[in-house]
User: What shape does this take?
Amino acid sequence: MYGIQGSATVITWLRKHGNFDWENQTPSHMPKTPEQKILELEAKVKLLEKQKAFLEQQASQADKKAIIFDMMIDLAEKEYKIDIRKNSAPERSTNTNSKPKRA
Assistant: This one.
């Protein structure tokens, strides 16, 4: 009817000339009511609480894995009578073949 070939033409026109905030997906000319803001903030709080619980669970699992790993190393050291963990810092190389720098 209007000679528009595809939907991309309409979307391009709307992005160029429309008043819709494409990044936030909300009309930019309509301010949010206090009730809408409260609902959005409550949804964010719920999301953050879920994320916090998930991260706490992951941290707890990581702590348990570290404890089990330490126990396994202790058992291996006893069983094989070897030191697996390093007890001191590595020694520096004392290479005397290097040429002194000239000033």
